[in-house]
Every structure is written in structure tokens, then in C-alpha cells.
């Protein structure tokens, strides 16, 4: 009698494995390369525009610089760096984005581990409350928080902007890391406890290294959100603490089409997130693909 296993079709593997194999095909890679070129084109145009004079940008498109490279110079960047308002806004953006990202990742990692592996009264209800906060629009909290910051003396300062971003970034961050930490095998944590490891040691020596892809992905997203933010900064930052996005918007309002300042300033605002993304690209890809190959 013929075995049923011989007549059965071979297993095709899990959906995640099939997805990974398809992503490695030449057709998909060619399509992704095309998408990448389309995305890079406006970035290249912005960069070339930032290297041309206002007269050249007013007289022709940025692509003319490809046939006339003598138009290109770094005079606009030199003038931009000599603009005290723009440079101060750039450092304000750094002082807002970096502490916010570090605080959100640190607090969310601790809370995510607690919600995933620690037993305490009301754990599930508190986590549901955190998840419910994901649907609260940011616009709802602008006026009440602004009034509270005014009472506390934080309105118009960098710490006030940082605190607002941290508060509204934590729900998603906790939700993301809690779900990722919950996928860690329970036997691994029990073995660490049997070896005498405390909760802090397990968290710092075991959970954090295993959760590095998710933490890196969260850090990239959080940094990009805060770096590119303008709504919160327009409301909570004054002229001395305004980030680069608000400073560029102010330049546009005051000088109209001041391309000599706007183009290099916009590219400077763009290049920093790109550097951060490519620096953590390997961990980011691991975090995105982690769920599909399990």
C-alpha cells in the first residue's frame, strides 16, 4: 500500500519563512530599489538646491546643477551656521529629542518587563489602561497640559516639551516592549532565577540583550517623531527653546521664499534622522522581522 506521506505534497514551510524567501527574490529587490530611487530623488533635489545660490534656484530647477556643477558651493551652509537663531534651534532640537528618546526607552523597558513577567495586584487592568491611552488624540491634552505647565513654571521651556513628549510616547512604547518581552521563553527566565539571579540582574543581563532589536526600533521611531515634531513645539516652546522645525517655519513666514536659508536648514533637519536610522538599521530590521520568523 502506498504511504499517504509519499503522495502528499511537501510542506511549504511557515508563512513567515515563505515571506522571507519571497523578499529575497530578484524581482522584489528590483522593485524595492526602484522605490528607494524614487524616495531619494527629492532628497537629492533638496541637497542640490541647498548648494545653489538663490539666483540659480530662481532661474532654473535643481537638476540643472548636474550639467553645471560650478553652481554648487557651501556658501549657504556657511551662512546658515553663522545664523545664531538657526544654530540655537538645532541644539534645542538635540536637547529635546535625545533626552525624550532615552527617557521613553528606559521607562518603557522597565514597565514592559514588569507587565510581562512580574506579578503584582491589578497588573492586567493597569496594562489595559495603558493600551486605552493609545487612542487618546494628542490634541486633547494640549490646553490642559499647557495650563498645568504654566502653573508649574515649565511652559515655554525645553523640560516642558520633553515631559510632554515622554508622556505621550510612553503608552505605545510600553505596549510594544511588553509584547516583545512576553515572547521570551519562560524557561529561560526560570533558569536564571534558579541560578540565583535577581529581577534586576535578569532584566539587565538577559531581557535587555534579547530585546535589543525591539528597543532599537522603538528608539528610532521615537527619535524621528520628536525630531520632526512641530505641533507640540509651537505650543510649548518659546523663542529661546524652539526647535529647528519651528525656526524654519518662522524663517518662511518672515522672508517668504528664502531658499538660501530654508534649503540648507531643511536638509540639515533631514540628514540627522537619516544618520540615526542607518546607524541602527541592522537592529531595526531584526526588530521588524522578528515576529515573522517565529
Please give a structural write-up:
The chain is an all-alpha fold and 294 residues long. The chain has a single domain (83-292), classed as MetI-like fold, CATH 1.10.3720.10. The chain is built from 16 helices and no strands. The chain starts with a helix and ends in a 5-residue tail after the last helix. The relative contact order is 0.12.
At the fourth level of CATH, the homologous superfamily is MetI-like
| Uncertain stretches of 5 or more adjacent residues | 1-11
Strand content: under 5%
SSE-based structural type:
mainly alpha
Query: Radius of gyration in whole Å, from Cα?
Result: 25 Å
Through-space gap between termini: 37 Å
- Helical residue percent band: over 70%
What is the gist of this entry?
This protein has helices at residues 4-7, 15-23, 26-50, 54-59, 75-81, 84-117, 123-132, 142-152, 158-181, 186-194, 199-210, 212-227, 231-236, 244-255, 259-279, 281-289.
Outline the fold blueprint.
Layout: H1 4-7, H2 15-23, H3 26-50, H4 54-59, H5 75-81, H6 84-117, H7 123-132, H8 142-152, H9 158-181, H10 186-194, H11 199-210, H12 212-227, H13 231-236, H14 244-255, H15 259-279, H16 281-289
Amino acid at each position: 500500500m502506498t504511504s499517504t506521506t509519499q503522495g502528499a505534497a511537501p510542506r511549504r514551510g511557515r508563512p513567515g519563512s515563505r515571506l522571507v524567501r519571497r523578499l529575497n527574490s530578484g524581482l522584489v529587490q528590483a522593485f524595492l530599489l526602484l522605490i528607494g530611487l524614487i524616495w531619494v530623488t527629492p532628497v537629492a533635489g533638496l541637497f542640490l538646491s541647498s548648494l545653489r545660490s538663490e539666483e540659480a534656484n530662481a532661474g532654473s530647477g535643481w537638476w540643472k546643477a548636474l550639467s553645471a556643477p560650478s553652481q554648487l558651493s557651501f556658501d549657504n551652509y556657511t551662512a546658515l551656521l553663522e545664523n545664531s537663531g538657526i544654530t540655537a534651534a538645532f541644539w534645542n532640537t538635540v536637547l529635546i529629542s535625545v533626552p525624550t528618546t532615552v527617557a521613553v526607552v528606559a521607562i518603557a523597558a522597565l514597565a514592559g518587563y514588569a507587565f510581562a513577567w512580574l506579578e503584582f495586584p491589578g497588573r492586567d487592568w493597569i496594562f489595559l489602561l495603558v493600551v486605552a491611552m493609545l487612542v487618546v488624540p494628542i490634541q486633547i491634552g494640549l490646553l490642559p497640559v499647557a495650563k498645568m505647565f504654566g502653573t508649574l513654571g515649565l511652559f515655554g521651556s525645553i523640560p516642558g516639551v520633553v515631559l510632554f513628549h515622554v508622556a505621550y510616547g510612553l503608552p505605545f512604547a510600553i505596549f510594544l516592549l511588553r509584547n516583545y518581552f512576553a515572547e521570551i521563553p519562560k524557561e529561560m527566565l526560570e533558569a536564571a532565577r534558579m541560578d540565583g539571579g535577581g529581577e534586576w540582574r535578569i532584566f539587565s543581563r538577559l531581557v535587555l540583550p534579547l530585546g535589543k532589536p525591539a528597543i532599537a526600533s522603538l528608539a528610532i521611531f521615537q527619535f524621528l517623531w520628536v525630531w520632526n515634531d512641530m505641533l507640540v513645539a509651537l505650543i510649548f516652546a518659546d523663542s529661546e527653546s524652539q526647535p529647528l522645525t519651528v525656526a524654519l517655519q518662522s524663517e518662511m513666514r518672515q522672508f517668504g521664499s528664502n531658499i538660501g536659508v530654508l534649503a540648507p536648514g531643511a536638509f540639515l533637519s533631514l540628514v540627522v534622522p537619516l544618520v540615526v536610522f542607518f546607524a541602527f538599521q541592522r537592529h531595526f530590521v531584526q526588530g521588524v522581522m522578528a515576529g515573522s520568523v517565529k
